[in-house]
Structure formats: C-alpha cells, structure tokens
Amino acid sequence: MRAVWTPAGPPVVPVDVLPDQPALPRIKVLHVITKFWAGAGGNTLLTAIGTDPARYEVWVAGCEGGPLWQRAESAGIRTVQLRGFKETIAPLHDLRVLLQLIRLIRRERFSIVHTHSAKGGFLGRLAAWLCGVPVILYTFHGFSYHDFMSPARRWIYVHLERVAGYVTDGFFAVAPRVAREAIDQRLAPPGGVAVAPSAVELSGIPEVDTDAFRAERGIPTNAPIVGTVGRLDYQKAPLDFVRMAALIAGHRADVRFVMVGDGSLRTDAEREAARLGVEIVLTGERNDAPAIAASFDVFVISSLYEGLGRALTEALASGRPVVATAVNGVPDLVEPGVTGLLAAPGEPASLASAVEWLLEHPDEARRMGAQARDRVRSLFPPQRMCAIVQSRYDELMGLPAAGPPDHAPRDAAQSPQVLVSSNGRHEAHRDTDAWTPRKNGTVSVGGFSSQGTRSRDDRPARPTSDARALNWTFLVPADASTVFLLPSDGERLDGAIVAERNAAALRAAIAEGPYPAVAAPDITGWASLIGSSRAAERLLGRLAASVEPGGWLYAGFANARSPFHLLGTAALSRQRATGILRSNGFGEVDVYVAFPDHRTPAYLVSAARDAELEYFMRQLSFPHAGPVDGLKGALRRRAIAGAQRAARSVPGSVGARFVPSMAVVARRTA
Predict the structure, then answer these.
(1) Which listed residue, 295, 434, 634, 647, has the most CB atoms within 10 A of its CB?
(2) Which CATH number is 85's domain given?
(3) Among the residues of 307-347, which ranges form H helices?
(4) Total-model pTM
C-alpha cells in the first residue's frame, strides 16, 4: 500500500545558515544490464540519470565497452564494468560474472536491484536473490526468444525467464503488447507489469530535413529516400531490407536506399545487394543518425523481433512515414493507416508493398508521420518514464509519493486493488498502462471467522484453542453452509466435508462441488498425490474452480522463493498463485508470506518453534556431498536462521507437522 506522509512545509531558514546537519542515507539502486549501449542501454541510462538523486544513489553494472559509460559517470552515476560479461550463454564466463555481482551486491548492500535484458536480467536477479536483496525488479525491453529460433532453444529461454520471474518483485515493460506477451508466456503475473514507455531524448531529434545528407551523397531533392537505422545483425534482418529494395527498384528506378549502422551482417548485405543488382548506400555507424533519418521519405524497420526499438521511436518523433514489421511492441506505436503501415516479419515482398503504397500516396504518408510525431513526443519524454519507474521504487520501499498526498477519501470505484508482494509488503496494484490509463475497483478481503464475522483488523491475535489447532480455522467464513477441507495433518472441522488422502477420492470430491468455502492449509503436501511437474498449480486451479461464486478459498503452500522449492515441484510463487486465482474469477485476493521474511500476522500462520525448526533441519539436511554442497549448506543455514528468528519474534506455535510459508485468502466474484 502506498505510504501517505504529510509534507513538512517550506523551510523556515535556509539550510546553509544552520549548524552542520548529518547526511541522511540514500536508498541504493543497482541497474544490471548486459550491453550498456543501443536501445536498452539508452533506456537504462535515462532511467538512472532521471532518478531523484536526493532519495536514491544509483549504480549501473554491465558489459565492458560501449559509449554510455563515460556519460553515466559524468552524470554522477556509479558504474561497474563486469569482466568477461558476454551476451551469449557461456557457462564459465557467466559464473564469473555472477560471482562479481554477488561480491558487489554484498559489499554495497543495495536495497533495489533493477535488471534489464535477457542475460543481465537472469544473472542480476539470481545474484540479488542469493544476497537477499529486498526489492528485485526487471524490465522487459524485448524477449530473449523468438519464433525464428529452434523449439528446443526457445523452450530453454522461456523457462529460464520463468524461473527468474519467481524471485522478482515487480516488472516493467516498454510497451503494452510486450507486457501482454510477458503475461501470456507466464513470465510475469497477471496485472503485475507496469508499462513505462522507453524514453528517447527528443531534443536531439530534428523534425525537418536540412538536405545536408542529400548534399553529402549527391542525392537529388526530388528522389525519394527509403532508409533504415540500426545494427546490421540477425535481429534487424538487414538482408530483408536489401531484398525489399531490389523489389522496389524493379518498379521505381528513382528511389534511393540507405542503411545507417554497422554489424556482423554488413558484408552479407553488401554481397546480397551486388547479387540482386540494387544500389544501397551503407554509411556505417554515424553520430548524426537521427539527422540522416530525418531525410528519409519512408523509414523501414525490418526486424524479426523487437521490443519496441529506439530507432523506431526516433523516426516517428521526427515525423517520418514508417513501415515496420508487426512484431512484439511495434504495433503499439505503428497503427495501420494512423501512424504508419505494418508488414509481416521475414517477408521482403510485404515490406516492399507497404513502402510503395506510401511512396504513391505522399499526402497520406505525411499526415500519418505528423500524427506519429505528435504521439511520440507526448508519450516518450524521459521525465514520464522516470516518474513511472521511481513511483514504483517509492511504493515498494514504503516511501510517500513525491508530490503532496491526496487527502480526499476514495470511494470503492477509485481505490486500487490490494495485493501483497512476495516479500510480504502490501502493494497498491494499479493499472499503469501509459497508453490508456484506467482505474480499478477496490478490493477488500474480510469477514473471516469461525466464531462470527469480523473484519481483518478485528481478528484474534492468536488461536484460542489447543496447540494442535490451526490458525486457518479463524479464516473459515461463519456463514458458509459447507466447507470442503483438505486437512494438513488429520485435523477436522465440524460440519466440513473432509477429503480422503488419495488421488481418485480427491478428484471425485472436487468434482462434487461447487462449495461455499474451501480450506487447504497444505497444498504442498496434497500436490504430491498428483505427481506432475506443476502439481501445486494444478491442484490450486482445481480447488479454485470448485468454489461457487461468492465463495471463499483458503490455501497454504510452500513459497517457491524459499528453500522449500528444492524439496520438489509442489511449491508456488505469489505471482503464480494470484494469477491462477484471478483467472478463475477471484477478484478479491490477499496473500501473506511467512518465509523468508516471516512477516505473516500471527493470526494467520504462527511461525515455527522447536518442532518446525526440526522440520526445516530434517528436510534441508542433504545426505549426499557433491560440487554444490556449499550452496546446499548455505540454504540450510539460511532456513534454520530464518526459523530461529521467527520463533523469537512471533508468539505461539501451531504445533503442526507442516507450517505453510505462504497463505492466500480469496473470494470468488465471478
């Protein structure tokens, strides 16, 4: 939930006339990125520079080399160039980079680690999780996988992203369709991605052609220029641009073609142009690329995959008519007939057809370019992106908003939905789609009691029955006519339908629903009956479907962010549990996390004492020594220390064989 704190007011006296005041510590933020250049690098630089320096101390770590390190350092950003950091998978180099990140994070004690790009995102999040960083974030600038790679390789990349998602507290995406794809691929939870448009420095982008490039290359003023800007590599598909140019040149001899940029496929592009007999100007890398692009009559993006593309936003900001492949987030900016035209990726003929249409309809092309320019210049200033990102930082760190708080009470239709993050802190989940802002309805979960209806704040601080009683009994709605119970250790509840502990009986009992209330304090234990690779997810989904509209569900399970996930496949993350429930019509969801932060209220899950500590030790005592024995020992020590802290800090013990490390209480509204 967003902190509200009243501003102190204007200064009474200037600070410089006061006695020396102690410097207050700032929150340390580390950005981890693979390549600190090109689109994602520029986006990260603008984010780092635009973050409030009075509140945050910002660092950037990434590959060695690139033009942005010096600029970051001159802006006061602390930088670390990681030795041996490679873009492709290289196990030994990746391990060295991981160790460098772990040493850096432990030494500087960052509160936030914000990661970018595929390799930097995975290694950065893994290092942050191993070091216990409170807040771990990731920005989807694009995706490491695409439709043009082998199915096996794509499967590996997708599942690596999913694994990293389990330890991530928040996500950003550079465009709505990028956010949608992340959720469709289960890389992020539903509603868990904030759209922060990938900003560009608009002041350096010309809106009119100065004819300087035409004069430099001897191109007549009446000759249309079709061009592109970007790296000449596989992703950008430069050979498709060359083949498109050859198709157009067969009909329009007056058109000139320009490619700005360099890369591994430059020689191939030159050979293909010579083979097809089409003349193309390849300029190589140019510092004045935006000015050259402003001379294009049609700007072309031929990429096979593209999160959004800095070259695309800069071209639209200059008012150029654009033809772009319909991949990832590109259609969010290029809307056919409104701000440009789209083409199918990997099909030069489709690109050629769209380019020829714009050349034959110059008035319509000019109007599309003007509309695109106005949209980009209002949507992509750096201040807008930085405000969205820092707002999320502030929210996750419990800080008040930068501006004065709104003291007016909100009604139900204006309040944000309430979720709880995997680190136990409440979050105000808002629809932050920067393209089309909307407001969600309020969510309030309450009215749970076995002894009468009471609100969440009015629940008892600890159970009043004997030591074998479970706290979840206080969450059973008093007015529920029937409760379907999956007991954790042979418990009973008066009037409940108790499931038998075998797979066939469980499926039959679930099929007899729907029920007004379902209580399953040990999803992890029951999921072992299913035995699939996603047992806990499947069981939670089936139980959610067995709740009648208006009914309640309580479930406890092992947290996938804790060492419990090493015990098998029956653990769940907060994101996956919330996504499963929302997809089954649960509009009101509360999640509490007991491990590793142990911040769950005592009335929900009492932390372990001797019995639970023994359970942790027994489950995490690995009998086989091996190369990863040190990691296993570290996890075991962390689990034991966490249980000991919890036993000291939270009164009471449920005395059960298994204490869930995470619990969810939800009401089905649809």
Answers:
(1) 295
(2) 3.40.50.2000
(3) 310-317
(4) 0.59
Q: Tokens 């969600």 identify what position? A: 440
Q: Which of 332, 359, 377 is the last residue of a domain?
A: 377
Same domain, 53 and 142: yes
| Distance in angstroms (rounded) separating the CA atoms of residues 465 and 473 | 10
Q: Which two tokens stand for residue 423?
A: 């680190």
Token pair recorded at residue 484: 């379907």
- Which domain range does residue 156 map to? 24-199
Query: For residues 354 and 247, what is the distance between their CA atoms, to the nearest angstrom?
Result: 12
Q: Which of 321, 47, 381, 72 is nearest to 200 (CA)?
A: 381
Residues 6+ apart with CB under 8 A from 290: 204, 205, 206, 314, 318
Query: Among residues 377, 402, 426, which one ends one of the domains?
Result: 377
pLDDT for res 487:
76
Q: Can you name the residues that pair with 30 across neighbouring β-strands?
A: 59, 113
What is the Cβ-side half-sphere exposure of residue 390, based on CA atoms within 13 angstroms?
A: 25
526 and 613 assigned to the same domain: yes
- Residue 608 has a CB neighbour count (10 Å cut-off) of 27
Residue 425 CA to residue 487 CA, distance in Å, equals 28
Q: Is 372 left (phi over 0), alpha (psi -120 to 50) or beta?
A: alpha
Asked if 660 and 556 count as a contact pair (C-beta separation under 8 A), the reply is yes
Pairing of strands 417-420, 426-429: antiparallel
If asked whether residues 163 and 211 sit together in one domain, one would say no
Model confidence over 15-49: pLDDT tens digits? 888 898 888 889 999 999 998 887 788 889 999 99
- Strand pairing category for 417-420 and 341-343: unpaired
Q: Amino acid letter at 338?
A: V
- Span 496-505, pLDDT tens digits: 788 877 778 8
Number of H helices, E strands in the chain: 20, 21
**Sign of the C-alpha dihedral, residues 149, 151, 152, 154?**
positive
Say if strands 426-429 and 483-485 run parallel, antiparallel, or are unpaired: unpaired
DSSP notation for 139-180: EESS-S--TTS-HHHHHHHHHHHHHHHTT-SEEEESSHHHHH
Domain count, the chain: 3
Scan for tokens 């602390």, then name that residue. Answer: 78
Whole-number Å distance between alpha carbons of 218 and 258: 13
> Sign of dihedral through CA atoms 238, 243, 248, 254?
positive
Token pair belonging to 328:
């990832």
Supply the CATH number for residue 549's domain: 3.40.50
Separation in Å, CA 335 to CA 300, 326, 353, 368, 381: 14, 10, 16, 9, 20
String of DSSP letters for 214-238: HHHHT--TTS-EEEEES--STTT-H
Six-digit token string for 2: 């967003």
Taking the CB of residue 207, how many other CB atoms lie within 10 A of it?
14
Same domain, 119 and 233: no
Q: In this predicted model, what pLDDT tens digit does every residue of 55-91 receive, in sequence order?
A: 999 999 999 888 889 899 999 999 999 998 987 778 8
